[in-house]
Amino acid sequence: MQKNIQAIRGMNDILPESTPLWRYLEGVLQTVAASYGYQEIRMPLLESTELFKRSIGEVTDIVEKEMYTFADRNGDSLTLRPEGTAGCVRATIESGLLHNQSQRLWYQGPMFRHERPQRGRYRQFHQFGVEAFGLAGPDIDAELILMSARMLERLGLKDNAVLHLNSLGTVESRQIYREKLIHYFEQHQAQLDEDSRNRLYRNPMRILDSKNPQLRDLISRAPKMGDYLDEDSRRHLVGLLAMLDDARIPYQLDPCLVRGLDYYSKTVFEWVTDQLGAQGTLCAGGRFDTLVEHLGGKPTGAAGFAIGMERMVELLRDRRVHDVQVAPQCYLAMMGEAAQRYGIQLAETLRSRLPQLRVLMNCGDAGFKAQLKRADKSGAAIALLIGDDEVRQNRVTVKYLREERTQEQLLLEQLIERLATFVN
């Protein structure tokens, strides 16, 4: 007997019992994005490895440890996308979408990182991403944060999430801050863990993002980026905060919020919950004003965010969200060859006349008793019974499964009128 082939660790199937909740989540996110004038873009899962090295940064955990990278038959190095922004930027440059115009785009789909699987963190995970190009002011940052807040609100999750904000300044101000951080942490190297020592000279800002509780006090006393912001970044942040205050969006300024991708500048933000353990970030984003130019385009202001969909689904499931009806409204039970042929035609007629109606048709040999058990198990509200008598009379027997009503025989038009109440 051959051994069963299992799914790859950290890459999970989404089974039929879960897909309605996923569709509900996707529908809410897509509807909100569209209400702000954003359009969908779809990018390939595979990209040139160089794209991510140049965008995310070669001294990041993602590029150094987490990417799924391989050489194809031509010897080209390809990578399964670990995030969506770089591919979106590449697509807009390649297609000319950024030529003298702004763009507001959204996308969704799987991303891949070779991390240690745990609650809220998987090797294949799904993101809903939103990106805006050609807009450099704090107003687009505010729009993105307001959009993300509206998404959380529509899902009933906003009260359980806190908005964290920071500014990373420009490349120049960040370099000054970087040197201050190195000088500070050099004086306390003995207290640093191995990860932080490795980051000290390569990417010292990532030490601020350490999850090691033994480093909290040391990090809390480290120099703050806000003390080294350039004047333009400072004005940008003040303008953004004023807009959020006007919109009554509460926030926490978080000097340790640095994000794990090198392309961010000025505004960075996260929506964080305490209901998912260590993996509490639901949504994260910010500005990436240098990325388009860095990938071969013209200097272009840009900002965006991404939502971790598995984490959102987990929160929605915990709250027992049942907004999506997936059970069939009616179950078609038939007895005999003539009834089966009649039933197939009836089911197609019902689907044509009532496109929103969910009709589940019994297939295979079984008596009415067994078919009615299947109908009840399916969750259908009514069973449509067809036997030889119904075929001769051109009628259908309607049996109510969820309420105490006498079963009745109806002609087609009467049946359609009755079933319309289930979809309206």
Count of separate structural domains: 2
Based on CA atoms alone, the radius of gyration comes out at 28 Å
> Count of helices?
15
Indicate the structural class. alpha+beta
Number of E-state strands: 16
**Major sheet: arrangement of strands:** 1-5-6-11-10-9-7-8
Quaternary state reads: single chain
CATH superfamily of the largest domain: Bira Bifunctional Protein, Domain 2
Q: Summarize the biggest pleated sheet.
A: 8 strands, mixed
Shape-level CATH architecture of the largest domain: 2-Layer Sandwich
| Inertia-based shape | elongated
Q: Enter the CATH topology name of the largest domain.
A: BirA Bifunctional Protein, domain 2
Query: What is the class of the largest domain in the CATH system?
Result: Alpha Beta
Share of helix among residues?
25-40%
Mean pLDDT: 92
β-strand percent reads 15-25%
Query: What distance separates the N and C termini?
Result: 52 Å
Low-confidence stretches: none
Walk me through the structure.
An eight-stranded mixed β-sheet has the order 1-5-6-11-10-9-7-8. It has a five-stranded mixed β-sheet with strand order 13-12-14-15-16, sandwiched between helices. It is 38% helix and 20% strand. It is built from 15 helices and 16 strands. It folds into two domains: 19-170 and 230-318, BirA Bifunctional Protein, domain 2 (2-Layer Sandwich); 330-423, Anticodon-binding domain (Rossmann fold, 3-Layer(aba) Sandwich). It has helices at residues 19-35, 49-56, 61-66, 85-95, 138-154, 171-186, 194-199, 216-220, 231-246, 291-294, 309-318, 337-353, 368-378, 388-393, 412-423, and strands spanning 39-40, 46-48, 69-71, 77-80, 103-112, 124-133, 162-167, 252-253, 265-272, 281-287, 302-308, 330-334, 359-361, 382-386, 396-400, 408-410. Helix 1 (19-35) runs antiparallel to helix 5 and helix 5 (138-154) runs parallel beside helix 9 (231-246). The protein is an alpha+beta fold and 424 residues long.
